Amino acid sequence: MSRVGKKPIEVPQGVSVEFKHDAIQVKGPKGELNYNFPESIKISMSGNQILVDRGSDEKSDRALHGLARSLVSNMVNGVSQGYKRVLEITGIGYRSQVKGNKILFTLGYSHPIEYDLPAGVTAAVDDKQTTITLNGIDKQALGQVAANIRKLRPPDAYKGKGIRYAGQRIKLKAGKTGKK
């Protein structure tokens, strides 16, 4: 039995859970999320806990058991507390600013880069324009947006310039030593 899959999921106050044929809908103070789970996975409610069970011990069902439980748990946490991802911009002249539903980047290219935020993800930039805080209720969508933004200018291995996750350490390489 999956160690992750057999853990019950606590449903906090203010979060409602609805089951349809093969889908679960979680509503909370921050919004609502839906998940269509596989037919071999059974999701049920017991008191204020959500239980995830699998139909058989086939390899594919065992693989989906822990995954389904993690996805439902992320949905419950997302609609109750939300998720946050922080990105840092390092480099002279590198900066960003939020304009409505877009983020404008100046990252050393010959042109500014405009990044459209998807629905459900919001961004805020600090006063120095070097720290971007992304907020959202869908953990997967938020992580994908953060990865796409980081891909615009990944951290350089020699000088450390670029966009990195907050707290990410970059091991810098030594440059050339010069001719003799």
What does this structure look like?
With 180 residues, this protein is of the alpha+beta class. It folds into 2 domains: 9-80, Outer Surface Protein A, domain 3 (Alpha-Beta Complex), CATH 3.90.930.12; 83-165, Ribosomal protein L6 (Outer Surface Protein A, domain 3, Alpha-Beta Complex), CATH 3.90.930. Helices cover 20% and strands 38% of the residues. The chain is built from 2 helices and 13 strands. The chain has helices spanning 59-80, 139-152; strands at residues 9-10, 16-20, 23-28, 31-36, 41-46, 49-54, 83-90, 95-99, 102-106, 113-116, 121-125, 131-136, 162-165. The strands form 4 sheets. The protein has a 4-stranded antiparallel beta sheet with strand order 11-12-7-13, with helices on one face. A 3-stranded antiparallel beta sheet has the order 1-6-5. A 3-stranded antiparallel beta sheet has the order 2-3-4, covered by helices on one side. It starts with 8 loop residues before the first strand and ends in a 15-residue tail after the last strand.
CATH-level-4 superfamily name of the largest domain: Ribosomal protein L6
Instruction: Please give the number of β-strands.
Output: 13
Name the strands of the widest sheet in spatial order.
Answer: 11-12-7-13
Overall number of domains: 2
- As a whole number of angstroms, the C-alpha radius of gyration is 21 Å
Structural class: alpha+beta
The CATH top-level class label of the largest domain: Alpha Beta
In the CATH hierarchy, the third-tier topology of the largest domain is known as Outer Surface Protein A, domain 3
Measured as a percent range, the helix fraction is: 10-25%
- Main pleated-sheet profile: 4 strands, antiparallel
Reported CATH architecture of the largest domain: Alpha-Beta Complex
What proportion strand? 35-45%
What is the succession of H and E elements?
Answer: EEEEEEHEEEEEEHE
Low-confidence stretches: none
